[in-house]
Amino acid sequence: MDDLTVAFTRSNGACPAGPGTTFWNREGAPGLIVTTGAGKVTGIAVGNYEPGATTANSPTTAAGAGLGSSLTELRTDYPELAYVGTYGVARGQYSIWSTQLADGRVEFQLGEDGVHVGMIWVSAAPLPYEFCG
Fold first, then answer.
1. Contact yes or no for 77/30 (Cβ under 8 A)
2. 68-88: pLDDT as tens digits
């Protein structure tokens, strides 16, 4: 994680981070949230639920899916995409969609509009309900 300090600024985000969680920001780029455990990175979240503001500088999957991608695009790119739950409206705002890629599991959480990806979570564990302590 020390390598992030070259390009990002560490912050507490909008809330105090929970144990093993750090928030990272860079102007013109989506926010990052990194979770750790036992000295290893256990998860990375990219995004801030406002996909329109950050899609130009956002990472994507090999298929081109990333922040701002629509659920329709995700389903086309990943036919095995599965609805796994929500922290908002079922199959809408803040709903979570998961797929297994060659390098691991990826979850796409829809943003405020309920149509486009607002956050991407990469981890063996499900997207946490809360990153604050």
1. no
2. 899 999 999 999 999 999 888
Size (the chain), residues: 133
Average pLDDT, integer, range 22-27? 84
Using the CB atoms, write b or e for 9-36: b if 16+ within 10 Å: eeeebeeebeeebbbbeeeebbbbbbbe
Measuring CA to CA, which residue among 102, 109, 68, 104 is closest to residue 86?
A: 109
Residue 1 clears pLDDT 90, i.e. is over it: no
Sign of CA dihedral 15, 48, 63, 107: positive
Question: Token pair of 35, please?
Answer: 């979770």
Other beta carbons within 10 Å of 84: 14
Q: Is 52 helix (H, G, I), strand (E, B) or coil?
A: helix
Q: What is the pTM of this model?
A: 0.87
Residue 73's nearest CA partner among 122, 106, 116 is 116
